[in-house]
Design a protein that fits this description.
Number of helices: 8
Shape: globular
Helix content: 10-25%
Strand order of the largest sheet: 5-4-3-1-6
Strand content: 15-25%
Structural class: alpha/beta
Largest sheet: 5 strands, mixed
């Protein structure tokens, strides 16, 4: 495991930082699985896809921020997802932090870290030893970032490009806003690091690839490190719906059409996202990121997906289940093994107010309309629950100057689908002859309402 730490930054970090003053540090760790000793099953598509080669590394990247009173760590890992219990183990290794958020880029070309993509549906694809390395790498990257902290000021910018997203599920709703934050030394303006958030599945390489790679974020980060001259951390946002590059036309600089499943398309797309971030940073304005107001909330989310029930029974899904009585935030959690009664999984949602920046942390792949507040109205009559109440959008709850969403934060519960757009039974919406993709990878139709409802309570909490 490789951990980066600048000696010069460590010396500067020894300088005292006054309460209310921002300091920031960046760190990383290499958690690429070792090939050859045992099978490495790749996540995100079908079963039994074994990795044959490493194209580029699987990394953990972390940024640690302090307002002089409290420290917050934001971590991103180049994997398909991490369950809450992995995040809890990372937190146990990091005392002294007000909040540690561990997210995944949702990379479909790295090792299985959830258990869903083993050699067959009956066996997990998780290598316990490698998962421990990932968890240790998260803690090490945060420790490195903490030691590298230096006084900083920040600038924030946004840029949009709907042509860089393909929504493969009706209705077409895109969150095409990229958010970028640049941290600089107060006196010199020299870059300390960049945080960038974008909303697309890292799955350019598609289902037949057998080379371990971080997919397009690898190239986005490579571009930004060169253009900005500093460390960069990439976070995935709202990717439900489904936000993808597959079947999205994309040409190289010479006008040649690039095919899905190729590194050429991954590099081109990642570079374009990096250039969009450059555009956002070029127009970035100063932003105050202190003081911190951090509001995590433990929740229960009902698990109605029968395939998930089966995976839990077979041990391919390593989760504790809890009795579900309809209360998302009960006073007491009751573990259960009785699936003849309603069951739920423990998860977490977060609201962060970092000065003038508000951040929603969502434990899965949320549909853009749930973020923007644009749930279809009226519902298509073919929907399973056309009379369901529309969930409150996340962004309309935010009142600050700036906003950002981090998906797959602290857990991975699959898709959060507006209930009135849930469409698993015939007749299907929009006159389609078969169900659209999504419901089979969701815990159930109640999840979106719980996520959006609890988030609204967190924002309004006094």
């Amino acid at each position: 495991m490789r951990v980066s730490l600048s000696l010069a930054a460590a010396l500067v970090a020894a300088l005292p930082v006054a309460a209310g003053d921002l300091s920031v540090g960046f760190g990383e760790a290499d958690v690429t699985p070792v090939l050859g000793k045992k099978p490495v099953y790749m996540a995100g598509f079908g079963h039994g896809r074994e990795a044959k080669k490493v194209h580029d590394p699987i990394m953990v990247r972390a940024v640690v921020l302090s307002d002089g009173d409290a420290k917050v760590a934001l971590v991103s890992v180049d994997v398909v997802g991490l369950f809450l219990h992995s995040v809890e183990r990372v937190r146990e290794a990091l005392p002294g932090f007000k909040y540690v958020m561990v997210s995944a880029t949702h990379n479909h070309e790295g090792p299985d870290t959830l258990g869903l993509w083993g050699p067959n549906p009956l066996k997990t694809g998780v290598d316990p030893e490698h998962l421990k390395r990932v968890e240790a790498g998260c803690a090490d990257a945060v420790k490195a970032a903490d030691k590298a902290r230096v006084p900083a000021v920040a600038k924030i910018g946004t840029a949009s490009d709907a042509s860089l997203l393909h929504d493969n599920r009706l209705p077409v709703v895109k969150l095409d806003e990229l958010v970028a934050v640049r941290f600089e030394e107060p006196k010199t303006g020299k870059a300390v690091g960049v945080l960038v958030q974008w909303n697309c599945h890292p799955e350019v390489l598609d289902s037949k690839n057998t080379e371990v790679t971080a997919d397009f974020p690898h190239y986005t980060l490579k571009h930004l490190k060169e253009s900005q001259g500093c460390p960069v951390v990439y976070f995935t946002g709202a990717v439900g719906g489904l936000m993808t590059t597959l079947k999205m036309p994309l040409k190289d600089a010479a006008g040649k059409e690039l095919a899905d499943g190729t590194f050429e398309k991954a590099e081109r797309y990642g570079t374009l996202v990096g250039q969009l971030a450059d555009k956002a940073l070029k127009a970035a304005a100063p932003v105050a990121l202190t003081p911190f107001d951090v509001r995590p909330q433990t929740i229960l989310v009902p698990v109605e997906n029968k395939l998930y029930h089966l995976g839990w029974q077979l041990g391919t899904l390593d989760r504790t289940m809890y009795a579900w009585d309809g209360t998302p935030t009960p006073k007491e959690l009751m573990p259960t093994k009785d699936i003849t009664k309603p069951i739920a999984v423990k998860s977490e949602i977060g609201y962060l107010k970092l000065g003038d920046l508000e951040v929603a942390v969502v434990p899965g792949e949320i549909y853009p309309e749930l973020v923007l507040g644009g749930v279809q109205d009226p519902a298509d009559p073919g929907a399973d629950f056309p009379d369901a109440r529309a969930e409150p959008g996340l962004y309309p709850q935010l009142k600050g100057k700036h906003r950002m969403l981090i998906g797959l934060g602290n857990d991975e519960l699959g898709y959060f689908i507006p209930k009135r757009q849930w469409d698993a039974k015939s007749p299907y919406c929009y006159g389609l002859k078969k169900a659209q993709y999504g419901e089979e990878n969701s815990v159930g139709p109640e999840a979106a309402g719980i996520i959006c409802g609890v988030f609204k309570e967190l924002v309004n909490k006094k």
